[in-house]
């Protein structure tokens, strides 16, 4: 008697591979993992999605750039205030293609089909969000919806990486697109400025 397998996906289509859990109908206690490559299909779907939404992406990018220009003065004021009290200063903030973020920094991927970047600088919007030496972004929603942000790589997984100065110590944190962000935190210390003197 031949075995029958029922495939159940374990991950979303946003990865290069989809992992399936296969249960044999004759022996359900013996699970198998089957790896099915879907990267070519995924890339095709992402390309189609970007082409269909090219005008929308361009509009959102323009709106984000306009918002950043308007936030620049506010960000400078908040940075000066934070500097005077040894508070939270955003040194660099980048948002975009998750696979571009490595332990050593950001591997800037090629531009998308329309010449746009896959990782964008969101330092000014993050500094503008600073309130009493803290930044909190609730989870559950894409950060592309935040003022000064947009989705530079529609259809792909995204991350936000922030390098910041707090009480003369440099910290770095990376969160996924829908993950809660609360800074400052103790766990992301990179180095202390006072230890360099």
Question: Which H/E pattern describes the elements?
Answer: EEEHHEEEEHEEEEEH
- The protein's oligomeric status is single chain
Strand content: 25-35%
Residue share in helix: 25-40%
Total beta-strand segments? 12
Distance N to C terminus: 75 Å
Mean pLDDT: 80
Describe the structure.
This protein is globular. Strand 5 and strand 6 (105-106) form a beta hairpin. It starts with a strand and ends with a helix. The strands form four sheets. The protein has a five-stranded antiparallel sheet with strand order 7-4-9-10-12. It has 197 residues and is α+β, with helices and mostly antiparallel strands. The model is unreliable at 3-28 (pLDDT under 50). The chain has helices spanning 39-52, 54-84, 123-128, 193-196, and strands at residues 5-9, 17-24, 31-37, 88-97, 101-102, 105-106, 119-121, 135-137, 158-166, 169-176, 181-183, 189-192. It folds into two domains: 5-37, no CATH class; 54-196, no CATH class.
């Amino acid at each position: 008697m031949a075995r029958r397998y029922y495939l159940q996906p374990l991950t979303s289509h946003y990865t290069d591979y989809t992992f399936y859990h296969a249960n044999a109908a004759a022996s359900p206690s013996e699970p198998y993992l089957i790896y099915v490559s879907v990267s070519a299909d995924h890339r095709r779907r992402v390309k189609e999605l970007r082409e269909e939404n090219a005008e929308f992406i361009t509009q959102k990018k323009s709106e984000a750039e306009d918002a950043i220009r308007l936030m620049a003065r506010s960000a400078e004021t908040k940075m000066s205030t934070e500097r005077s009290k040894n508070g939270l200063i955003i040194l660099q903030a980048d948002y975009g293609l998750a696979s571009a973020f490595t332990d050593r920094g950001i591997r800037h991927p090629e531009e998308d089909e329309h010449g746009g970047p896959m990782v964008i600088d969101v330092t000014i919007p993050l500094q503008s969000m600073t309130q009493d030496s803290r930044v909190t972004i609730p989870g559950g929603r894409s950060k592309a919806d935040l003022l000064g942000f947009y989705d530079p790589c529609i259809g792909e997984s995204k991350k936000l990486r922030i390098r910041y100065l707090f009480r003369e110590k440099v910290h770095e944190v990376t969160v996924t697109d829908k993950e809660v962000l609360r800074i400052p935190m103790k766990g992301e210390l990179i180095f202390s400025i006072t230890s360099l003197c």
